[in-house]
Amino acid sequence: MRASNSRVLARAVPALAILAAGFVYGFFTHKYQLPPYHLLRSLFVEPEPIASTPPHTGGRWEKTPAWIRDLELHADGESGETEARLSALGYLDGYIPPPQVDQVTTHDPSLAQDGLNLYVSGHAPEVHLINMQGEALHVWRREFLTIWPDYEHYREEASPEDPPHYIFRAWPFPNGDLLALFEGHGLVKLDRDSEVLWSYAGATHDRPSGCHHDLWVTDEGEVYVLTYDRGKNVPSVNDSSTIWEDHISILGPDGAERDRFSVIESFRSSPYSSLLEPIVRSPYHSLHANSIQVFDGSLAGASEVFRKGNILISCRENNAVAIIDADSHQVVWALAGPWLRQHSARLLDDGSMLLFDNRGRDPELGESYFGSSKIMQFDPLQQSISWTYEGTDQRPFSCPKMGVCQRLPNGNTLVTDSISGRAFEVTKANEIVWEWVSPHRAGTDGEYIATLCQMLRLDADFFPLDWR
C-alpha cells in the first residue's frame, strides 16, 4: 500500500509543479503583458469597431471611445453640469449639431504653440477655422455635386462612397483661398466665401481616376496631389488582373495638369524595386500612397536626396517611405522601418523625419491587430530614432488608420488622432499641453463621432483680420 501511494505521489508532484509553474507564468504574462499576451488577446478578445456609419447620415464616423465620453463629462470638473447641457440638446437619430460645450479639454498657454487651428472632419463637406479656445472663426463649405454636376456619368468607376459627403484634406492660403480634396475623387480651389475658383476631377470618361489622401503646394504655387487610376493593367506588377495604380499629378496655380507619373513605375525603375513585392499580394495591388511633401532644397547640403523638387511619399501597403527624384521620377531613397501602416511622413528642418506609426508597437501580430500607435522622429540617413510618443493609460493612443502629425515652431508636435475624433499637442517630454475633441456627433445619444481627417496649426497672423 505504501509503495502504491509513493508511486501516485511521484506522479502527482511533477504534474502539480507544472500546473503551478503555468499559473505563475500566466499571472506574470497577464500582469506585465509578456509574450504571448498580445497574440492571445488578439485571438480571443474582439476589438472595438474602429469605423462605422450611423443610420440616416452621410460622411464618415467612428464609434466614440468610452474614455473620450468620460473625458468630456469630467473636463470642466463638474460632470453633472456638462452632462445636463449635452442631454438638453435633444439628440436625434442622425447628425447632431455641435454641442455648445467647451471641446478644448486641455490648454496650457505657457507651453502650447499659439495660433489658429484648421480642421477637416467626416461630418460634412466643410473646413473649419477655430482659435486655441475652440471658438469658431470661419467655415468653408461646398457640396460635391455643385462642383462636379456631371459626376453621375462616371460614378460607376468611383469609390464606394457615392457621392462623397465630406472633405478629406485642405490647404489654406493667406488670402482666404482654400484647396479642398474630396477623397477618391477631385480637388477644388475655393475662395474665402466658398466660391469655386477651379477644380481638378482627376477622372475622365476614358481615364477613371481620382485624387486621394494628400497634397502639397510649392513656393511657386504648383500643386502636387496623389492620384490613382482604377482598373489599370500593369504587367510589371501583375499581368493577370487590374489594379489601382498610384500616380502623382502636378498642377499649375490655375489647376491645369502639367505632369503626371506612376509611383509604381518610380519604384520599378529604381534600385528599390523589391519594395513592390508586398503589393502583389494586396487585394488591389496598390501602394496606397497616403502622404506627400515636396522639398524646398534647404537641406540639399546634408544629402543629394534632399535637393529641391524631390518628393517624399509614404506608402501604406509596403510600409515604406520613399524619396522620388524630381527629374527622373525614380525612387532615390527608401526605407521600410520599424513601423506598420504608417502615415504623414515629413522631413523636418533639422534633417530628421517625423512619421505617424499606426500599428507599430506589435508589428509581429499582423495588420489585423489594432494595437497602440505612436509618433516617431528618426534620422533617415543614420536610421536612429530620437523621439517617440505612444500615449498613456489616461490618454490611450490607438489610431490604426489615417492620422496626421505636424511639428510646430516651438518644438511641440500636433497630432490628429483620426479614429478618436481628437487632436492634441504634445511636448518633447510627452506632456499634452493642448487637446481638442470633435463636437460633431451622430446617433441616438452621440455614440458616433466624426472622423477627424486633419487638424493643422497655423500662425496667429496667417489670415488678415479684416475678414476673419
Core attributes:
468 residues; alpha+beta; 4-stranded antiparallel sheet; 7 helices; 34% strand; globular
Describe this structure as you would to a colleague.
The protein is an alpha+beta fold and 468 residues long. Helix content is 15%, strand content 34%. The strands form 7 sheets. The protein has a 5-stranded antiparallel β-sheet, with helices on one face. It starts with a helix and ends in a 10-residue tail after the last strand.
Number of strands: 29
Q: What structural class do the secondary elements suggest?
A: alpha+beta
Proportion of beta-strand residues: 25-35%
Q: What value does the average pLDDT take?
A: 82
So how many helices?
7
Oligomerization status of the protein chains:
single chain
Shape call: globular
Please give the alpha-carbon distance between the first and last residues. Answer: 96 Å
Radius of gyration: 25 Å
Q: Into which percent range does the helicity of residues fall? A: 10-25%
Low-confidence stretches: 29-35, 37-52, 76-93, 156-160
> How are the strands ordered across the major sheet?
3-26-25-24-23
Main β sheet profile: 5 strands, antiparallel
Compile the SSE list and pairings:
Elements: H1 2-32, H2 37-44, E1 61-63, H3 66-74, H4 79-87, E2 95-96, E3 104-107, E4 116-121, E5 126-130, E6 136-141, H5 144-147, E7 169-172, E8 178-181, E9 187-190, E10 196-200, E11 209-217, E12 223-234, E13 238-251, E14 257-262, H6 263-268, H7 277-280, E15 289-294, E16 311-315, E17 320-324, E18 331-335, E19 343-347, E20 353-357, E21 374-378, E22 385-389, E23 404-407, E24 413-417, E25 422-426, E26 432-437, E27 441-442, E28 448-450, E29 452-458
Antiparallel strand pairs: 1-28, 2-27, 3-26, 4-5, 4-29, 5-6, 7-8, 8-9, 9-10, 11-12, 12-13, 13-14, 15-16, 16-17, 17-18, 19-20, 20-21, 21-22, 23-24, 24-25, 25-26, 27-28
